[in-house]
Design a protein that fits this description.
homodimer, alpha/beta, 5,6-Dimethylbenzimidazole Phosphoribosyltransferase, Chain: A, domain 1, 2 domains, 6 strands, 9% strand
Chain lengths: 353, 353
């Protein structure tokens, strides 16, 4: 393990119980029946523990979208051609994609990272270039990447979030772009959770039933060929992962090390969270699950991580779109803590018994 | 039925299918796999149909909170003393309640309506005075109100929303404040849906198991004594309802007549939606269910109305708090329709087959 990765993991501490307890005590004084804001109360307490602040603020928000291409699309596992990855990144940079609309809606900035797109980009102020290679190798024929590349992807994610934190950041949502990337995500999910491939593999952007059957076979074959070691997350990432998945895992680890709440988007970000939590189980305390995706397998990941999603809106787009909606709810939760008056201050009578 | 009520009901038309179809066609052209934004797509199409606009806008938002007191609290059915209704209304006017925080978060204005609080208020720019009486009668001893008062409550709600529409409004959320008002809401739910009282009665703001058993008995006795006619919503409202519940029903009807989407909050707003939909079944097409409350019985109401809630966050506060969070999601949905680029405009390749 490299120095930046081991330092980052070593910096991740348990949440601050005292700050969380103070936030809970304050929630119990606010003008509402105790517990009546449900998960908003839990979220505000969780963010207090994560940040170590009794009254956390969520003002500076970012969605980090990491993009990469996948050699395995040569097997016919995706409904869209590979060039859509680069086309959609251009769409992000021009502001016309769903995540642009939703990030504007919640007042978040977008950080687009090229971690391995199979196309060259002109420099752009919103594009961070961290290209490891122009797409992974086809995992059906051998490892998707080398161990060095896998480590570099995770480290690059850490560096990206460190850069964003120095620019000012209170919460981060992580999203993905990469045609074909439900395939490595299902492979990672099967390898780490031990679930059968068929139970954690879905239709992604919308393949046919026949393509789905093929996709399952391709993943099963890739796992049999590459034999990822479930005890070694970097091995799993290198053999059946993707550059953007490694990058997202790095963002998650780096954010936790900086005591930032991390809102994980859907299935691909979930697979990255599996990698991150295998590298550092403590990171789970810093995760907020945005939503449960319509993609089969996502619930398995959430269960494995012990996370309950905030939203269930049948979304399956990625890009951080679910994370954007969820960040707004986390922000609302934190605002109740700071913005509501207490029973005493408002002169409101408390419960009768 | 009065003229304003029958005119309002007569004005409620089915949603505009053509606008909805155009919105759906546009969603299918936007740069994402078809259907991948899940319920956001459905919501945007629904709002297009409601408003009759292919590209609806949600900019001017209001939460209408209607408050009233309840004679039935004399039976010991609530965890909080009756004066909390007025105290919380003062809290709303000072900006310190949960709904103030959440309305500010989503950029909505708040309209607080006194439809029957058992206290006098000084004039306040944010308080609309529509007091019908200082609280209902105790429904355990006789009808909660006269039929004239029930009609007046519904009409007053229509007048309130008409006033708000002329000030400019794109969406309205409806919420309640009234200590004791889960009791009439459960009674309305049982009377209209035919479910047993015990299955639609919960702990409200947090009564004990013993109080819950008492609450069920009080409601059963009130229904046996007053015999509301389930075929006559005004009869149900007058015998076992509340002024704020009638007012919210009026806001719902008036909003539908003006082609506004109405986001209904929790259990009490749901009971009001039952009254409104019995008066005019077509109103259901204008309703968006914000969330499923932790209060037992709310799911029964949603099922009866054929509505799927957007959120499930364990909330049970009322005030329109769930509606506020949901309005932000509806706004996000509508923004995707107008703000995203199409495949053609973005030069993104479409699906392979």
């Amino acid at each position: 393990m490299s120095e930046i990765l081991s330092n980052t993991i070593g910096t991740i501490k348990p949440p601050d119980k005292e700050a969380a307890a103070k936030a809970q005590a304050r929630q119990d004084q606010l003008t509402k029946p105790r517990g009546s804001l449900g998960r908003l109360e839990e979220l505000s307490v969780k963010v207090a523990g994560i940040t170590g602040k009794e009254l956390p603020r969520i003002e500076r928000k970012a969605i980090v979208i990491i993009a990469g291409d996948h050699g395995v699309v040569a097997e016919g596992v995706s409904a869209y051609p590979r060039e859509v990855t680069a086309q959609m990144v251009h769409n992000f940079l021009r502001g016309g994609a769903a995540i642009n609309v939703l990030a504007r809606h919640i007042g978040a900035r977008i950080v687009v990272v090229d971690m391995g797109i199979a196309a060259e980009f002109e420099p752009h102020p919103s594009l961070v270039s961290r290209k490891i290679a122009p797409g992974t190798h086809n995992m059906a024929k051998g490892p998707a990447m080398s161990k060095e590349q896998a480590l570099r992807a995770v480290e690059s994610g850490i560096e990206v979030i460190n850069g964003e934190v120095s620019g000012g950041l209170d919460i981060v949502g992580v999203g993905d772009m990469g045609i074909g990337n439900t395939t490595p995500s299902s492979a990672i999910c099967a390898a780490i959770t031990g679930e059968p491939v068929g139970r954690v593999t879905g239709k992604g952007t919308g393949v046919s039933d026949e393509q789905l059957a093929l996709k399952v076979k391709v993943i099963e074959a890739a796992l049999a060929l590459n034999r990822p070691d479930p005890e070694d997350a970097i091995d799993v990432l290198s053999k059946v992962g993707g550059f953007e998945i490694g990058g997202i895992a790095g963002v998650i680890l780096g954010a936790a090390a900086r005591r930032l709440p991390v809102v994980i988007d859907g299935f691909i970000a979930g697979a990255a969270a599996l990698i991150a939590s295998e590298l550092c189980p403590r990171v789970k305390d810093y995760l907020i699950a945005a939503h449960v995706s319509a993609e089969v397998g996502h619930q398995t990941i959430l269960d494995y991580l012990g996370l309950r999603p905030l939203l269930d809106l049948g979304m399956r787009l990625g890009e951080g779109t679910g994370a954007a909606l969820a960040i707004s709810i986390v922000e609302a939760a934190v605002k109740t803590l700071a913005g509501m008056t207490t029973f005493a201050d408002a002169g409101v009578s408390e419960k009768l018994n």
